[in-house]
Design goal:
Blueprint: E1 40-43, E2 46-52, E3 62-68, E4 73-79, E5 84-98, E6 101-106, E7 110-113, E8 119-123, E9 129-136, H1 142-152, H2 159-163, H3 165-168, E10 171-172, H4 176-185
Antiparallel strand pairs: 1-2, 2-3, 3-9, 4-8, 4-10, 5-6, 5-7, 5-8, 5-9
Length: 186
């Protein structure tokens, strides 16, 4: 006697009428950013290539690519209240904090950090990193990235970053776990 699985019941038809309707004023346009003409923002240890900035270029997301020098510190522990942040490692290795866990992402790794989740990142010890970042839903953030570069170069007061936390949805937190990870990387 053989065990023959019972046939599966046919799936119920989908009821798309229950799905929320798209906003009537939504009008996204294709966004093309050419590598040769993309704006860059930089600080002494990284270069950010600005790709799509929600609300300023017709995009519904915000995205940029960062290349980090070996040992470069990316961002201190922080969280976002309105957006998820996606990380895709194009090359090298990125050390990340997610909640209270530190991991190393390698080429090809993908990470999604949901809203309200503390996270931080830096080039992994002894490594460079090339990372694509995407925020969804997007919000205008390129001015924040430009400000970061100015602060890192000593051209702007760090207080400007603190004062802009609500505007750019970047809320910094203390993380002893992240501080310890950075201290052992030196």
């Amino acid at each position: 006697m053989t065990n023959t699985p019972a046939p599966l019941a046919p799936a119920a038809p989908s009821d798309f009428s229950a799905a929320p309707a798209a906003p009537s004023d939504f009008s996204a346009a294709p966004v093309l950013t050419r590598a040769a003409t993309a704006e860059t923002a930089s600080d002494p240890s990284s270069v950010m290539t600005l790709l799509a900035d929600c609300g300023t270029d017709g995009s519904t997301i915000t995205s940029y690519r960062s290349t980090f020098a070996a040992g470069a510190v990316g961002a201190p522990a922080h969280f976002h209240t309105r957006a998820s942040e996606l990380f895709f490692v194009i090359g090298g290795s990125l050390q990340v904090l997610v909640d209270e866990e530190v991991q190393t992402l390698s080429e090809g790794d993908f990470l999604l950090v949901p809203p309200h989740t503390p996270h931080a990142f830096a080039a992994a010890p002894g490594a460079t990193a090339d990372v694509l970042f995407v925020f969804t839903p997007g919000m205008p953030r390129f001015d924040y990235l430009r400000l970061l570069g100015r602060v890192m170069r000593g051209e702007a007061d760090p207080q400007e970053i603190k004062d802009s936390s609500e505007l750019y949805d970047n809320h910094y937190v203390d993380s002893p776990v992240w501080r310890a990870a950075l201290a052992t990387a030196v």
